[in-house]
């Protein structure tokens, strides 16, 4: 099928036939872009998603993967690029769009920043330990820095023990298979992150999906699992593991934890919760969803989280009872086969945790958590007053604003960038086709002035593109407005 640039797709490769007048086209490809030798084959790529990619995504893909050339702080620099062939390729102009307000990074506490004096300990660690460990935790890759970090994580979460891993994604995908296997049942929220999905699949356990954050749907699966057991044999499941997230990154919803804990106790199932977007970001002192609901963290069997969002670093952790963590130290593929966390990264997390716990002798860390909560409520409230439809819990710093139509996505993101506001837009296949959205991430590093600039632009954009779909506008709550913004010290 022709694309706007005049090329055709043959097995995923773009051939520009206008330029190829040497017979290559007629030798290899049919009119429909299918390689001749493969004519009788079931098409490998010609499905709906392929159609969608060529006819919709390609036309608006300038709004994704925009390269930035600075740290993803509250402001960032975007490299200007243009396309001369309707988005098939891009060319950098060499110009940089400076100081764009960053509404897209998961920099919840503003800890992803350029080097400053407060990061001196990272420099010191770099000088002493170097950058890499070049060994696994199991062999020679366990450093005192890892031990210090794990003790701090356990202390922060108020649990017996914790283990850290070099990559958040692998923390899920490599540890779930260590906990469950054949004959076990995983009950997974339909909107769980791919790392959870992959871990579940790799485990070999049977997977059943419940509706997003829907405890009735979960209870039905639990009841059926207990009554009917495994298919055919009707033996009882060896164990049942419920997989959920703390805050969902596309919906902004917060898990219904108290109800899920009640269910897991009733049906004697285990609970695994991924706090990638909630650790540091929700709860009065940033200790995640257990703190948010005032629950004992030991009520959750496996607490998992990542350091890529609130901590401005990389990696993940599993925390909970000591016997669970000891078991994973021996059985996790991540501990046995993957290199351990780089020491400067470990130090950045240690520094951030000490900051949050006030162990650096200041209350700045706690203030960040409070500022994030204030910014979140202010931003969400103002959007609802304007008549936008937004998803999620009012305390969730992930704020999806519904645009619905794919056509509006492009206009929205392009206009916002013209106003020097960087936004993340999300569409199919990450969302249903007609539920495209902009997904804002509020940060403690956003000043009230920045948020007001964004809100003003959104108000204008909402009228221009007719995005104010809500019939239930919220009335104004000035008490949320006069709070003086706490400016973070650099
Ligand atoms: N879990 C969730 C819920 C996530 O959103 C992500 C990534 N954003 C991960 C795990 C993977 O973490 P990382 O990017 O730190 O590898």
Description:
The chain has 490 residues and is an alpha/beta fold. It folds into three domains: 8-56, no CATH class; 69-102 and 365-486, Aspartate Aminotransferase, domain 1 (Alpha-Beta Complex), CATH 3.90.1150; 117-357, Aspartate Aminotransferase, domain 2, CATH 3.40.640. The protein is built from 15 helices and 15 strands. The strands form four sheets. The chain has a seven-stranded mixed β-sheet with strand order 5-11-10-9-8-6-7, with helices on both faces. The chain binds 4'-deoxy-4'-aminopyridoxal-5'-phosphate.
Provide the descriptors you would attach to this structure in a database record.
490 residues; alpha/beta; Aspartate Aminotransferase, domain 1; seven-stranded mixed sheet; three-stranded mixed sheet; 15 helices; 15 strands; 36% helix; disordered N terminus; binds 4'-deoxy-4'-aminopyridoxal-5'-phosphate
Number of helices: 15
What binds here, in terms of ligands, is:
4'-deoxy-4'-aminopyridoxal-5'-phosphate
How many strand units? 15
Give the N-to-C terminal Cα separation.
53 Å
Write the layout of secondary structure elements.
Blueprint: E1 8-10, E2 13-15, H1 24-28, H2 48-60, E3 75-82, E4 91-102, H3 120-129, H4 144-157, E5 161-165, H5 168-179, E6 185-189, H6 194-203, E7 206-210, H7 215-228, E8 240-245, H8 257-266, E9 270-274, H9 289-292, E10 302-306, E11 316-320, H10 322-331, H11 333-337, H12 343-356, H13 364-386, E12 398-404, H14 406-418, E13 421-422, E14 424-426, E15 436-441, H15 448-464
Parallel strand pairs: 4-13, 6-7, 6-8, 8-9, 9-10
Antiparallel strand pairs: 1-2, 3-4, 5-11, 10-11, 12-15, 14-15
Helix pairs in contact: 3-12, 4-12, 5-6, 12-13, 13-15
The chain binds 4'-deoxy-4'-aminopyridoxal-5'-phosphate (PMP).
Residues 167-169, 172, 193, 195, 245, 249, 274, 276, 306, 308, 316 line the site of 4'-deoxy-4'-aminopyridoxal-5'-phosphate.
């Amino acid at each position: 099928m022709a694309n706007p640039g005049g090329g055709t797709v043959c097995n995923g490769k773009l051939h520009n036939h206008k330029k190829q007048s040497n017979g290559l086209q007629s030798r290899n490809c049919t009119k429909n872009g299918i390689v001749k030798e493969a004519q009788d084959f079931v098409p490998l790529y010609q499905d709906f998603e392929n159609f969608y990619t060529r006819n919709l995504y390609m036309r608006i893909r300038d709004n994704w993967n925009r390269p930035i050339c600075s740290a993803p702080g509250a402001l960032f620099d975007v490299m200007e690029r243009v396309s001369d062939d309707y988005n098939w390729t891009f060319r950098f102009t060499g110009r940089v769009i400076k100081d764009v307000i960053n509404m897209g990074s998961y920099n919840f506490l503003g800890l992803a920043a350029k080097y400053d004096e407060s990061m001196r300990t990272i420099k010191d660690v770099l000088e002493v330990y170097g950058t890499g460990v070049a060994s696994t935790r199991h062999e020679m890759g366990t450093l005192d820095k890892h031990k210090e970090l794990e003790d701090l994580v356990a202390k922060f979460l108020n649990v017996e023990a914790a283990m850290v891993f070099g990559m958040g994604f692998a923390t899920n995908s490599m540890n779930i298979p260590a906990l469950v296997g054949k004959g076990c049942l995983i009950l997974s929220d339909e909107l769980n992150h791919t790392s959870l999905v992959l871990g579940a699949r790799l485990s070999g356990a049977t997977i059943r999906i419940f509706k997003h954050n829907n405890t009735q749907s979960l209870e039905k699966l639990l009841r059926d699992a207990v009554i009917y057991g495994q298919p055919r044999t009707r033996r009882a499941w060896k164990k049942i593991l419920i997989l959920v997230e703390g805050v969902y990154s596309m919906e902004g919803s917060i898990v219904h934890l108290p109800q899920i804990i009640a269910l897991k106790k009733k049906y004697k199932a285990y609970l695994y919760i991924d706090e990638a977007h909630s650790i540091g970001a929700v709860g009065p002192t940033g200790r995640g969803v257990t703190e948010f609901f005032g629950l004992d963290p030991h009520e959750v069997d496996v607490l998992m989280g990542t350091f890529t969002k609130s901590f401005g670093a990389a990696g993940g952790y599993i925390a909970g009872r000591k016997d669970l963590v000891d078991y994973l130290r021996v059985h996790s593929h991540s501990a046995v086969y993957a290199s351990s966390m780089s020491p400067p990264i470990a130090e950045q997390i240690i520094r951030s945790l000490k900051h949050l716990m006030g162990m650096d002798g200041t209350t700045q860390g706690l203030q960040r958590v409070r500022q994030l909560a204030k910014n979140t409520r202010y931003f969400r409230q103002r959007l609802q007053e304007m008549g936008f439809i937004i998803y999620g819990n009012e305390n969730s710093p992930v704020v999806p604003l519904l645009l619905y139509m794919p056509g509006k996505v492009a206009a929205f993101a392009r206009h916002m960038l013209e106003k020097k506001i960087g936004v993340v837009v999300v569409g199919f296949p990450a969302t249903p086709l007609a539920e495209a959205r902009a997904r804002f991430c509020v940060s403690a590093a956003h000043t009230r002035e920045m948020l007001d600039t964004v809100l003003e632009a959104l108000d204008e954009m909402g009228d221009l593109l007719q995005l104010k779909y809500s019939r239930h506008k919220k009335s104004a709550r000035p008490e949320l407005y006069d709070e003086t913004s706490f400016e973070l010290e650099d």
